[in-house]
Design brief:
Strand content: 15-25%
Distance between the termini: 34 Å
Shape: globular
Largest sheet: 7 strands, mixed
Number of strands: 22
Low-confidence stretches: 1-11
Structural class: alpha/beta
Number of domains: 4
Number of helices: 15
Mean pLDDT: 93
Helix content: 25-40%
Bound molecules: 5'-deoxyadenosine, iron/sulfur cluster
CATH superfamily of the largest domain: Methylthiotransferase, N-terminal domain
Radius of gyration: 22 Å
Length: 463
Amino acid sequence: MAADVIEAATVTPAPNSRRVYVKSFGCQMNVYDSNRMVDMLAPEGFVEVSQPDNADLIILNTCHIREQASEKIFSELGKMRVIKDARAKAGDHTSIAVAGCVAQAEGQEILRRQSAVDLVIGPQAYHRLPDLLKQSALKQRGIVDTEFPAEDKFHQLKDPSAEKVRARGVTSFVTVQEGCDKFCSFCVVPYTRGAESSRSVSQIVEEVRVLAAAGVREVTLLGQNVNGYHGIGEDGQPRGLADLFRDLACVPGIKRLRYMTSHPNDMDQALIEAHRDLPQLMPFLHLPVQSGSDRILHLMNRKHSASDYLDIIKRVRAARPDIALSSDFIVGFPGETDDDFEATLNLIQTVGFASVFSFKYSARPGTPGVNLPNAVSETVSKARLAKLQSLVEMQRQAFNAAAVGQTMDVLFEKRGRYPGQIGGKTPYLQAVHVEGPISMIGSILPVQIMSQEPNSLVGRLLA
Ligand code: 5AD
Ligand code: SF4
């Protein structure tokens, strides 16, 4: 999953409305949650703004996955405090809420480290946001809600308005599964997001229908362990991710389906066959392996070997030969030797990835990894990361180079970088720019790929 900061869309607020500014850190699941928080707040008179300076409510939706990710939040909170103090001088009140995984992991500690914070709200409590804001307005001290309540958060969340869906564009995320039971020894997710739970098929289909009716053409299903999805079907029987895709492929208007992030051990035959059978299921698979060394995979508690992973890739490629592959890697895990790292490079060479996310190991408090001996030095980790990244960059460029000269269907999503251009994605998730009218946004059109730039392709509309 990407670790970018994603800013909110702008809407001009009515004079009597309150303004909410949301900043998402970390993975796409936080982006989805941020949108749902904004949807929850809309009936309370809140309008989303793209800058914090004049916001009545600032929400930081945080990520705790690596150390740098959580430290970034405290430096961001320092900046928000300056805004809050400046507005207070002018007689305006700003509430600051910390949501997401840092909220879940650090709770009360956030109020101690940054007294400007009014509300700390864990990922399972977003539907209680309006109530919690009212409570915090009545109290002097900050409020912390990091319970894992029994009620189904998704039942309580509000659907976005059609106008809001349109403002967000033709692609959308939909969280279908939360939490993780895998307990990889480096990872905080099982502690911050709790045990695996899946939404029901009917709830997801309904949400996707609402999105499609408002113009969404591509939906990416999200979950910390999305291919571990096991929701209840209409008949009360459990359904896997492949069944869910078969239902969603029938929703009128939905042209493309994607999913992330998956675990190799949940890559079942039904899902592999869905890649073979469903034209809507895009030929792109993000399947993190983390390391190519069996010794390190064992220490990571991954419960699969490098050859298990290669076997899955073989079966996926047999079902869908053109599938683009993507993965996450961690370098410098405790005990990782030069040979272990070589095994990772070998695995990368064997598979050939279209894109990769790679990280230096970061010891996270509360995970078993912190107790492992033989830490790898910063210098060695840095050098390994650079070596790995240069190899995967070569593979990414080769993958994009192979597209040049081909004709591909592109879903146009937005205006391009220059006037007169529009931008979209190939089925393999490559960014493409062409000369074309903005009326084409939302359409899937054949494009001849003419050339390759460092991070995108340049094409020519054939239609
Ligand atoms: N250190 C470094 N990378 C990590 N990831 C998860 N936890 C850690 C950690 N403690 C990476 C994994 C995971 C991705 C989302 O983040 O590669 O797949
Ligand atoms: Fe973390 Fe492992 Fe679960 Fe992925 S599968 S969320 S890395 S514990």
